[in-house]
Write a structure and sequence with these properties.
With 197 residues, the protein is α+β, with helices and mostly antiparallel strands. It contains five helices and 13 strands.
């Protein structure tokens, strides 16, 4: 999350400002933050995920959306721009502008130094309140590591981590399996730090 909150605004004021602005902003409990530009690593990861998900879901009842689509979490509480969003069935829109969806099934966030705390903290807690959300997936851009939180049948969330190129991210809720090697295709990762003895 960027570090420039503006004074408290209403949900309606946020939407009016954001829809007219050249720079996107997220909204949380009356505060809005301009989203900073991403790195080449971030962009490659988001594009790889989008492309793989698009191909895997072609012909299904699920659809992939880029970070241009807002997701609303609880009216008047949070609006976010996930890096990749999957919606299954008919998209449920917040209004007739067709730029806000309220029924994501899967959300991917590519972690950045400026957003990681928010993605793992407040944003994570709000995302988990979305009834339709089945998987929340965090993708590291500095190491091959994907973390997956999956909603179980009783509402409990389970955690899985993937760290090897041959590992497959299994998203059972939508019937998709993605090899990490494809998610990280052309992504230049720094060499791992040597283990201390």
């Amino acid at each position: 999350m960027a570090s420039n909150p503006v004074p408290k605004v209403t949900e309606e004021e946020y939407l009016a400002i954001d829809r007219a602005a050249e720079v996107r902003s997220e909204f949380l409990d009356g505060e809005m933050w301009a989203m900073s530009g991403g790195s080449m690593q971030h962009s490659r990861l988001a594009m790889n995920i989008s492309a793989e998900m698009y191909n895997a879901l072609r012909g299904s009842n699920c659809e992939v959306f880029s970070s241009d689509l807002r997701v609303r979490v609880m009216p008047r509480r949070m609006y976010a721009y996930p890096d990749v969003t999957v919606v299954c069935g008919k998209p449920v829109l917040a209004d007739d502008r067709q730029d806000i969806v309220v029924n994501p099934a899967v959300i991917f966030e590519v972690l950045s130094p400026t957003t990681e705390k928010y993605d793992r903290g407040a944003k994570f807690r709000y995302y988990l309140t979305i009834d339709t959300l089945k998987d929340y997936i965090l993708v590291d851009q500095f190491a091959m590591r994907v973390e997956q939180y999956t909603r179980g049948t009783a509402g409990a969330w389970t955690f899985r981590a993937y760290q090897q190129p041959e590992d497959e991210l299994k998203i059972d809720s939508i019937g998709v399996s993605l090899p990490l090697a494809r998610i990280y295709d052309r992504v230049e990762l720094p060499p791992p730090e040597p283990e201390s003895e």
